[in-house]
Amino acid sequence: MAKKIVLFAIIPFVLLSILDFTTSIKGTFSFVPLVVECLVILTYILYFFYEKMRSDIFTPAYQTRAFWIAVAFTLFCSGNFFLFLYSNNSVKDDLYKLQYTIIYSTFTILKNLFICIGLSIKEPTTVGSNIQHGKVDDIWEIPIDYKKTNL
């Protein structure tokens, strides 16, 4: 049920984007879809973390690639959310444009760093998959030598 909600939750965002595109004044940039996009992505990431914590109890979350990539987009979206929200009112101010560039660039660099961390992590093999193949002892996680001995 929850996965269907996630799939169908994107429909209002697409409709809002189309409405905003058709009603916006030419030559201007609307930040409303960006604000809604940040909220939608943050909601999806929170749901992802919830499902990850419920289903995977053997591997710590910080040892997976998906965790670091999700953290990257969480930082990016949450850091730029209020920036996008406030941008509609202050787009003409030169000082604000400089501050906007600094803040946006900082969160973009942080996002890219966390994505690099996520892509460079070697994920550990889960204990359950190794037990099925007979490579790891269930309790001690020690490789077992299955050589035949002559007694």
Show the helix and strand layout.
Layout: H1 2-8, H2 10-23, H3 32-55, H4 65-90, H5 94-120, H6 127-132
Helix pairs in contact: 2-3, 3-4, 4-5
Protein architecture, described:
This protein is mainly alpha-helical. It has one domain (9-123). It has six helices and no strands. Helix 2 (10-23) runs antiparallel to helix 3 (32-55), helix 3 packs antiparallel against helix 4 (65-90) and helix 4 (65-90) runs antiparallel to helix 5 (94-120). It is flat, with a radius of gyration of 23 Å. The chain starts with a helix and ends in a 19-residue tail after the last helix.
Task: Tell me briefly what this model is.
This protein has 151 residues and is mainly alpha-helical. Helix content is 69%, strand content 0%. It is flat and about 85 Å long.
Task: Give short descriptive properties of this protein.
single chain, 151 residues, mainly alpha, 69% helix
| Gap from first CA to last CA | 58 Å
Number of helices: 6
- How much beta, percentage-wise? under 5%
Q: Give the helices and strands as they follow along the chain.
A: HHHHHH
The general outline is: flat
- Taking all Cα atoms into account, the compactness measure Rg is 23 Å
Largest sheet: none
Give the number of DSSP strands: 0
Helix content: 55-70%
Number of domains: 1
In terms of per-residue confidence, which ranges show pLDDT below 50 for 5 or more consecutive residues? 129-139
Secondary-structure class: mainly alpha
Query: Average pLDDT across residues?
Result: 80
